[in-house]
Design a protein that fits this description.
Layout: E1 10-11, H1 13-23, H2 37-47, E2 50-51, H3 64-70, H4 75-83, E3 93-98, E4 100-105, H5 113-118, H6 134-147, H7 152-159, E5 165-166, E6 174-175, H8 176-186, E7 190-196, E8 199-204, H9 205-208, H10 211-215, H11 220-235, E9 237-238, H12 240-246, H13 251-264, E10 267-272, E11 279-282, E12 294-296, H14 307-314, E13 335-340, E14 343-353, E15 358-366, H15 372-389, E16 394-400, H16 404-417
Parallel strand pairs: 1-10, 15-16
Antiparallel strand pairs: 2-4, 3-4, 5-6, 7-8, 9-11, 10-11, 12-13, 13-14, 14-15
Helix pairs in contact: 6-7, 11-12, 11-13, 12-13, 15-16
Length: 425
């Protein structure tokens, strides 16, 4: 693969940043009317996928990126696209291991067949075929064939099993039935028909996907080239490691694919000032003159989920601290970076307290050299918008962080201006 940068055009980081933001949908104006199904699909065309994660400290991870791009929207629109199907409105997204567990467009599912083959005995278990419980596998498939979409627990009840839970091959306290369901999901034999309370309801893939999609075969080199092409579109500009990370590929896969895309003219090799690796610019990437607007980004937003890229593009060091012991956390448990006019200018630790109707902000931090007064004012508005979207009554700011005091003043000032809607006798 070409690595020489001799003669390659040179871009500033600021230019690369605008390209990346435009590719991810941040150059488009927010809709002036409530977002529709079409609006959601258009935003998803920019991200290509949505990472799934079980943490619900604020809102499930797959819902947040759309809010960041199009504002307050009805989350059932995304639910319907991913977990419902009818002749009039067929399923548009399906779950699989793309960038970790993710929603991806239904037509992209066959591009993962090479991974399904790799995971034919499970994603983490590393079991040989002989170690698989073939009788239980047959029983699980039989239950799903008879009863339709079911959780692993429901399958167990149908089988009247009381199998011990084991951590031998898994980092979770899964029953043997759940392990088998996950193995069959990873191998592509099962898919996810729906989720209820974030629980997977497994079903036979042939009943979740259209027949032409379930039957389509794609050779690994062709699939990898297409995945790298999709990653390049989603990035606008990126290094080999950026393109590799989007679908969790490896270097041996991506380098030949990038070479093919360079030869076809779909990618162009460039240099970005301060980057120590070549960058690849997609032929259709836009370079807006400026990016405006504010957005809160969840930790699993596709714009920032590859932390090395986030640091290169935004000079923003970011690590999720969920698994860090509380005394050692720098910024907090579930921290949202704050995007303002195309730059990451701060971050807030957030918690949605649904029982009391509060969006809590235990900590708020500004990036060095920023206009903290403006950051606080814009962030207060973004937090109020998020609270409204999540149907929370108030925003409550704590005292951790160098931005907390200014943010609290802005939030209180905005609250004082809100009309009093309480009913008086």
């Amino acid at each position: 693969m070409p690595i020489s940068l001799e003669g390659a055009p040179t871009l500033t980081v600021a230019t690369a940043r605008r390209i990346a933001l435009a590719a991810q949908g941040f150059a488009a104006a927010r809709p002036s009317t409530p977002p529709t199904r079409r609006t959601v699909l258009k935003a998803l065309d920019s991200t290509k996928l949505l990472q799934l994660d079980s943490v619900a400290a604020v809102v499930r991870a797959h819902y947040a990126p759309l809010f960041s791009r199009i504002g307050a929207y009805d989350r059932t629109l995304l639910d319907d696209l991913a977990w419902s199907h009818s002749a009039r409105r067929p399923r548009q997204f399906v779950e699989y291991w793309a960038h970790e567990a993710a929603l991806l467009p239904v037509p992209d599912w066959p591009l993962m067949r090479w991974r399904m083959e790799k995971y034919r005995n499970g994603r983490w278990a590393g079991l040989s075929a002989g170690e698989r419980d073939s009788a239980l596998i047959d029983d699980v498939i039989g239950v799903l064939r008879e009863f339709g979409p079911s959780t692993a627990g429901a399958v167990e009840r149908h089988l009247e099993l009381d199998r011990p839970r084991s951590k031998d091959h898994w980092g979770w306290n899964y029953s043997e039935t759940k392990v088998v369901c996950e193995q069959l999901f990873a191998s592509g034999e099962l898919s996810v028909a729906k989720r209820v309370g974030f629980q997977r309801y497994y079903d036979l893939t042939e009943r979740v996907l259209p027949p032409e999609v379930a039957a389509r075969e794609v050779d690994e080199p062709d699939a990898i080239r297409e995945l790298v092409r999709r990653a390049a579109v989603a990035h606008g500009i990126g290094t080999e490691t950026d393109l590799r990370d989007y679908y969790r590929l490896n270097r041996k896969q991506t380098e030949p694919a990038i070479a093919d895309l360079l030869e076809s003219g779909e990618l162009r090799q460039v240099r970005v000032q301060g980057w120590d690796k070549p960058a690849y610019l997609h032929a259709d990437a836009r370079t807006p003159r400026r990016i405006t607007g504010a957005a809160l980004l969840c930790p699993f937003d596709p714009l920032i989920f590859f932390r090395d890229r986030t640091e290169r593009l935004f000079d923003f060091h970011y690590r999720i601290e969920i698994y860090t012991p509380e005394p050692k956390r720098v910024h907090g448990y579930y921290v949202f970076p704050f995007l303002l006019d195309g730059e990451l200018v701060g971050r807030v630790d957030l918690r949605a307290d649904r029982a009391t109707g509060r969006l809590r902000v235990p900590g708020a931090f500004a990036e060095p050299g920023r206009d903290t007064a403006r950051v606080a004012a814009e962030l207060a508005g973004a937090l109020r918008e998020m609270a409204d979207w999540l149907e929370l009554d108030t925003v409550e700011v704590g005292d951790r962080g160098d931005l907390a005091a200014a943010l609290d003043r802005e939030v209180r000032a905005a609250r004082a201006l809100e009309p009093d809607t309480r009913v008086r006798a």
